[in-house]
Design goal:
This protein has about 160 residues and is of the alpha/beta class. The protein contains 7 helices and 7 strands; from the N terminus they run H-H-E-H-E-H-E-H-E-H-E-H-E-E.
Length: about 160
């Protein structure tokens, strides 16, 4: 490394801590994908014909559920998972949890509670907020609704962002 490169790296906030070695990065990102699902991927799986291979679980309160939830989701607030999961969920079927959105760790707490009970689990990144912001249909106590997709979260003309 040249002196100029070393000096610029030391002042660069991105590279102040060097990137992980490729093998360590691959392990980290692989583990992340094993524990997370994207809103668009969940929507695509739910829209496909046949069994999705997972149960979608809304871990929010009843009041939050009534405001809006993903059609077909199972409602089980995080605080009730220890007592009710075995009555509602098949331990052989993976569970995908969601809560309000990226500023809420409720889905993470629910995923941990389920994993501790022996369930295979993933968290839906973005939660209900990004479900609605990406323009997917949701249910409220008044019926089904859909919002126009936010162009900052979903492509304007395509169902596929190309990620």
């Amino acid at each position: 490394m040249t002196t100029q490169t070393a000096a610029s790296t030391a002042t660069n906030p991105v590279l102040r801590v060097p990137p992980a070695a490729p093998a360590a990065a691959a392990a980290y990102f692989g583990a992340s994908l094993a524990c997370h699902a994207d809103v668009s991927d969940v929507a695509a799986a739910l829209a496909s014909d046949g069994d999705t291979g997972f149960v979608l679980l809304d871990s929010r309160s009843t009041a939050s559920w009534d405001q809006g939830h993903v059609p077909g989701a199972v409602h089980l607030p995080t605080a009730l998972i220890a007592d009710q999961a075995r009555q509602l969920l098949d331990p052989a079927v993976p569970v995908v949890t969601y809560c309000w959105g990226p500023g809420c760790n409720g889905a993470t707490c629910a995923a941990l509670a389920l994993a501790e009970l022996g369930y295979q689990v993933k968290e839906m990144l973005g939660g209900f907020e990004y479900w609605a912001r990406e323009g997917f249909e949701f249910e409220t106590w008044q019926g089904r609704e859909r919002r126009t997709a936010d162009p900052l979260t979903a492509p304007d003309e395509s169902a596929d962002c190309g990620c």
